[in-house]
Structure prediction request, 261 residues.
Amino acid sequence: MASVEARRLVLRNDLAELQRLAGWIQGWSDAIVPSSDVSFAVQLCLEEAVANVIMYGSPKGGTLEIAVEVGRDDGAWVALIEDNGRQFDPTTVPPPVPPTSLDDAKIGDVGIHLMRSFADHMHYERRDGRNRLTLRFVEPQASVRPAG
Amino acid sequence: MDIAVEEIAGGITKVGLRGRFDTTGAVVVELPFNKIVTEKQKIIVDLSAVNFLASYGIRVLLVGAKIAKAKDGKLVILCPENNVAKVLKTAGTDTLIPIFQSEGAAAEALAAA
Prediction:
């Protein structure tokens, strides 16, 4: 396995930055994350977390700094998303009410639910005027990416 | 992200999406996709070549299904790969938009609609 030192990327609150985030993760995840399911989950949760900050972190339109760090710790992949936007704790958002019909279905509201479902653990803290969201992804022993 | 449109038997329009259906991809296909669902009645959205799906992609699919239904049309999904199917299920989209594993079954459901 290649190096699993923590990797870090700093983004601005501009939706175009999501393309840079996706390219950054794809640039190393396939090579060092053995499970394609975990790789997918990391990519999904980072996309949702960063998209939330970009869309809602700065209601008055000021520039934000969003730092993303991914590393490995104690048998799990750990992603930290840190931003200097308005205080927001996604772990307190209640799960969406499942719609019963297409007419009743609300558009949106699933990003945090997806993060909660695809990450094994979510932890939030507000420190030094920054939101710090930590996501853990446990690598299942049996789900190693096939060779070749 | 790429979008391809094909008219198949039974007055059905097959929309093939390819690539990452994330925010970046969804923004690219949103307008052409909405145009198709506005103009067509029976729509199969083939997700077999979509290797990633995030909430903005789900939004595009749901808006499309709502547009289709509002004019008595119908939209169904064909062949999402494993993790894409898991996202659809987790978001509850699979209870709102029918998902099929074969084009024949999808076409049959649209014929009956």
The CA atoms of residues 46 and 78 of chain B lie 5 Å apart. Chain B has a mean pLDDT of 97.
